[in-house]
Amino acid sequence: MTTLRPLSLMVNGETLTCFAEPRETLADLLRRGLELTGTHTGCEMGVCGACLVMLDGAPVHACLLFAVQAEGSAIETIEGLTAKTAIADLQCAFHDRNALQCGFCTPGMLVTAQALLARNPQPSRAEIRDALSGNYCRCTGYEAIVDAIETVARRRAAGEVAAAFAEEPA
Amino acid sequence: MNAPLGALDRPNSYIGRSVSRPNAKRLLAGRGRYVTDLVLPRMLHAAFLRSPYAHARISAIDLSAAQAMPGVRLIATGADLAKLCKPWTGTLDHFRGMKSPPQFPLPLDEVLWAGQAVVAVVADTRAQAEDAVEAILIDFEELPPVVDVDAALEPDSDRAAAGLDDNLCFGLKLDSGDVDAAFAAAAYVVEEEFHFGRHTAVTLEPRAILADWDASEGRLTVHHATQTPYQFQDLYSRHYGIPEASVRVVAPDVGGSFGMKLHVYHEDMAVVGLSVLAGRPVKFVADRMESFISDIHARDHRVRARIALDAAGTILAMDVDDVTAIGAFSSYPRTSAVEGNQVVRLMGAPYRFRDYRAELSAVFQNKVQTSQYRAVGHPIACAVTERLVDMAAARAGLDPVAMREKNLIPDDAYPHASPTGYRFEALSHEKCLKRLTVMMDYERLRAEQAELRASGIHRGIGIASFVEISNPSPAFYGIGGARISAQDGAIVKVTPSGEVRCLISVTEQGQGTETIIGQIVADQLGLPRERVRVITGDTEVTPHGGATWACRGAGIGGETALQAARKLRENVLSLAATVLQAKTFELDMRDGVIVDLMTGAERISLAEIARIAYFRSDTLPPGTSAQLSVAHHYAPQGYPFAFTNGIQGCHVELDTETGFVHILKHWVVEDCGRIINPLLVDEQVRGGVVQGLGAAFFEECRYDGNGQLTNGSLADYLVPMACEMPDIEIGHVETLTADTALGAKGCGEAGTAAASAAALNAVNDALSPFRASIAQIPMTPTRLLRALGKI
Ligand code: FES
Ligand code: FES
Predict the structure, then answer these.
(1) Over chain B, what is the mean pLDDT?
(2) Is there a single domain that holds both residue A70 and residue A28?
(3) Nearest residue by C-alpha to atom 4 in ligand 2
(4) Distances from the Cα of B120 to the Cαs of B67, B142, B266, in angstroms?
């Protein structure tokens, strides 16, 4: 159970070879092994969405996948998505609208939002709420999150491009 | 003591402005630093063996197999930790007659609820610690569990814990006026028995703690996901006998708290001792299953209540009996009696009647402890009161709005003393009601409801007025002997470059504490907000204070910051006057520049003043005192609490075939005094409403007859999700408190206080054509179908 298995995968654009116990989840590998603590765990059973990451471009629950199952895949976490400014507009809109409080759900929310807008660029509010049905947030009451995603959908449709999120003053 | 508000009301004031939170950017980029994320060199991990029984005696523990497991560094039992840690008792002196069994980090010989931590294993990894837990052998001798509150109060009942004479933790009777006479003279009486389920906080980040005992210096550092670092500094110091100045508690980013993370948990106390025993940092993060069986639960009340009315529908009197089940211990240090106490004192709070009687019984049973969680007691008192008011309105043939217009305390009748012992400085129930009916377009909703009923669509409209306790003085805990501060402290200092840092004792869990403190300091000093940095959550650097609970961050913390900033401003201006050979009163600071008060002409920058003070004091006249750091404390004075008020409306559609309720829309009108940042206030209120709607429709810790929690996972325990929640419209009325210059009161609990009451009234309104009703939350589809007589 505790023998380490070699594993190679791409994380945030870098090819890595590392070792993982067969029982180790992808969430644990990212958080402990790779220090990518922006991926959170809230339930470790696939219902809260705090651990969502992109795997080959689609959102997956990092708590439901064993690390070894990610062999050969390309993973993107909140850190990687931030660095390549893929979600800068979402981050700005969340910030402006105060669509987060404690921020523990936020990385997962952003991953869901990004995936939603990729498959449905102009979702209705009901569709946004529906897409968020696997993302638990205890703090915000959700409305601000729905507003922020709606704003980004509109801005993207109008062709607006956001500057890198981190470069903007507070 | 209301100072002139000039600066607060300036058109470009930061106070009252919706600005976003500078510290939220880090969280958005995945750079939050939660205790869950922290790693220290040589850190070990703790896991706990937990009791499978609700009540049992520990007859034997065999650790030999576990000790031989890989990675295991230490295994500790209750006896091991009791040698280091003094036990604690969850009582407060001002709750007379209250009792509770003494508590140890881990039990010595008796377990009192299913899930109680019994033995701790410390290992190199959490997985290894969990593996070793599996290898521990314990002989439990099962004892009869106490699970039912009525049975618990029978004289010959089993006891929830050895040594208890009976299962009553705390009883309280209130009686004012002549309730019997009022009921005897009443034209009619409405009464109901209410049931409020147990639910729990379910913060997305579970409880997390990392204790680091350094024997070489005799220093304890605890990284603790909590709202109240000072309270824990005091507790770790006293219970482990470590001088207070050698204990540091750091609360970094905290993934939600809502009251849950300010109680003493057995595992947390144990982790401190484990670090002492191991001589290394020890970390414990509750997993979600552990959270459900060890985080405090909340509510769990059965309330029988009635109100007496005259023929015109005027409320004359109220009579209440609240029985609340609190688990096997009263929690520490805030006890498990505060909620019940607030339930019986907040009953009927928005209304004018004078005769009131209440009885409270807080009862022990073998379940997880209940204690303070967001809006302590408010949702119970509000739901009971507001439902009875609606029932009374129906009896009197009045619309619920008219009923409230008739009975609410008029806005011009303040100050007002409630028959339950509270004093209200100034509330605005009438204004809020008026505002709500406009926002809801109440008349139109009623017309639409009637129309839709004809076509078999059953909508319900519910409203609920509320009062919220905020800005608590020492009357809350201090007088009961608890070392929980009602005051806060701030240090505001100018850096050599002319920036400002504010270190303050109120804490941040995402509600925006640091943001509003920054707004206040920037505003009062006359600086751009970007040049103020606010630091919270570390007992080593911020002054001692109460931190964040019971809605005190803006009201008390904000006033502390305001007074501290005003003091610093005086110092800066007087130093500038010396440098400029001017008079202090002729100067002002705007945008970081000292200017002529009258003309606005720029004289010298704050940065230049700071440079002179720090590096060229030789150029100042002899005897000049350049004090560019100010430490200041503020304790609430005047009213023991600053009460706030408001009203909520809820619009639902009930599917009478399935029992499902669709929440169409929710409204809140809220009066928290001066609003520092409307954006943050609104989101606090929305988040609070959703927690209240969760309680109303979904959330319940369900137990079987053996005291086993049967739905202790996030898949089985239902929480409100985005797709079930409505848009929430918010309006404000601002009635300032005159007790502070800032005039702010709390807003964090307002949403939760009345959301479930408004929902309960809305669902009952939808049920009314069927002559059906419900008086229990959560209002699950099963319960609604039962109310409709369909099952
Ligand atoms: S931690 Fe993966 S879904 Fe909750
Ligand atoms: S912001 Fe705290 S859980 Fe969503």
Answers:
(1) 95
(2) yes
(3) A137
(4) 12, 21, 11
- C-alpha angle B281-B282-B285 in degrees, rounded to nearest 5: 140
Q: What are the sequence ranges of the domains in chain B?
A: 3-32+487-634, 408-412+428-468+641-791
- Whether the per-residue pLDDT at B6 is higher than 60: the answer is no
Contacts of B21 in chain A (CB under 8 A): 95, 98
Mean pLDDT score, A98-116: 98
ipTM: 0.97
Separation of alpha carbons B513 and B712, rounded Å: 32
Domain end: A49, A65, A81, which one?
A81
First to last CA, chain A: 47
Q: What is the pLDDT of residues B585-630, one digit of tens each?
A: 999 999 999 999 999 999 999 999 999 999 999 999 999 999 999 9
Count of positions (residues) in chain A: 170
CA–CA separation, B394 and B391 (whole Å)? 5
Q: Cα–Cα distance between B283 and B295 in angstroms, integer? A: 17
Domain count, chain A: 2
* Domains B3-32+487-634 and B408-412+428-468+641-791 belong to one CATH topology: yes
CATH number of B3-32+487-634: 3.30.365.10
Helix (H, G, I), strand (E, B) or coil at B404: helix
**Of the candidates A103, A131, A108, A128, the residue with the CA atom closest to the CA atom of residue A52:** A108
Give the tens place of pLDDT for each residue, B100-121. Answer: 999 999 999 999 999 999 999 9
pLDDT tops 70 at residue B555: yes
Q: Can you give the residue range of the structural domain that contains A95?
A: 85-166
CA B249 – CA B231 distance, rounded (Å): 9
* Number of the ligand closest to the Cα of A44: 1
First to last CA, chain B: 61
Q: What's the A63 CA to ligand 1 centre distance in angstroms?
A: 5
d(CA B69, CA B86): 30
Architecture of domain B408-412+428-468+641-791: 2-Layer Sandwich (3.30)
Closest listed residue to residue B534, CA positions, set B510, B554, B506:
B506
CA distances in angstroms from B648 to A59, B212, B380, B391, listed in the order given? 38, 46, 15, 17
Q: Which of A114, A143, A151 to mutate to test the interface with B (most CBs of B within 10 A)?
A: A143
Residue B520 in 3-state DSSP?
helix
**The pLDDT of residue B545:** 87
Residue nearest to atom 2 of ligand 2 (CA): A102
Question: Do residues A94 and A36 both lie within one domain?
Answer: no
CA distance B354 to B512: 39
B72 CB-near residues (< 8 Å, 6+ apart): B66, B121, B122, B123, B128, B129, B132
Same domain, A60 and A126: no
* CA atoms lying within 13 Å on the CB side of residue A97: 20
* Residue of B28, B33, B723 lying closest to A94 (CB–CB): B28
What kind and span of H or E run contains B697?
Answer: helix B678-697
- Report pLDDT digits (tens) over A1-47: 568 999 999 999 999 999 999 999 999 999 999 999 999 999 999 99
Residue closest to B389 by CA, chosen among B49, B126, B128, B757: B757
- Of A31, A53, A81, the one marking the end of a domain is A81
pLDDT in tens, B185-202: 999 999 999 999 999 999
| B12-26, B282-296, B643-657: the lowest-pLDDT one | B12-26
Selecting from A39, A78, A133 the residue whose C-beta is nearest the C-beta of B721 gives A133
